[in-house]
Amino acid sequence: MSTIDLFPAGVTADGVEPTAAELDAIEREAPVIAAEVDLLDVEISLLDRPVSELDARRLRRARRRVLAARRALANLPVMGGAA
Does 7 map to a domain? Predict the structure, then answer.
């Protein structure tokens, strides 16, 4: 029986812990991740019932929050890159 490597080489710099740059990248993307989770919550709540006007409004707002978070992330200056 072969084993499955859950942490393949090259995932992190030293193979054990994320680097400071990787942690910074995660922190920068946290608002986008939170907005996407909120959107997913709304979408899941709408799976088993007809969409009312209030539900449609919640969905539109969640989508706008995702787009706003992505736009804000795209407009952030690149840290540690070539200037």
Answer: no
Structural domains in the chain (count) = 1
What is the per-residue pLDDT across 3-28, written as a single tens digit (0 to 9) for each? 666 655 555 555 678 888 889 999 99
Cβ atoms of 41 and 11 within 8 Å: the answer is no
Tell me the pTM: 0.70
Q: Say which DSSP state 9 is in.
A: T
Phi, then psi, of 82 in degrees rounded to 5? -70, 135
76: left (phi over 0), alpha (psi -120 to 50) or beta: beta
- 24: containing domain: 20-75
Residue length of the chain: 83
User: Read out DSSP for 18-61?
Assistant: --HHHHHHHHHHHHHHHHHHHHHHHHHHTTTS---HHHHHHHHH
